[in-house]
Write a structure and sequence with these properties.
The structure is a single chain. This protein has 108 residues and is α+β, with helices and mostly antiparallel strands. It has one domain: Alpha-Beta Plaits (2-Layer Sandwich), CATH 3.30.70.20. The strands form four sheets. Strands 1-2 form a two-stranded antiparallel sheet. A hairpin with a 2-residue loop joins strand 3 and strand 4. 24% of the residues are buried.
Length: 108
Amino acid sequence: MNMTSTSNSTSNQKIVKELPEKFAKWKGVDRTLIEWHPIIDENKCVGCGMCVTSCGRSVFGYNYIKHKAEVARPLQCMVGCTSCNVWCIYDAISFPDKEIVRDFIKEH
């Protein structure tokens, strides 16, 4: 497993997570170089947990103190995927502009 350090957008705290090898690279590129992960608007999130249960890559966790979802493993997010945004009926999940991914592909 790779050890990675990243900033959690929902709380601006540094988190250190072990990144499973199957998520360590995207199309041969180190996943830590790609700025793509969901961002939860805590003001819109009602804590229904739909994102937690619908994400097949276990990107989300549930904060039982705040009663809200949180981005627990951002680097496990599939680059370009936005399915959790579709499942969130409260429009609480957003992503960086898809141009970031397009530009990254052009560069690499």
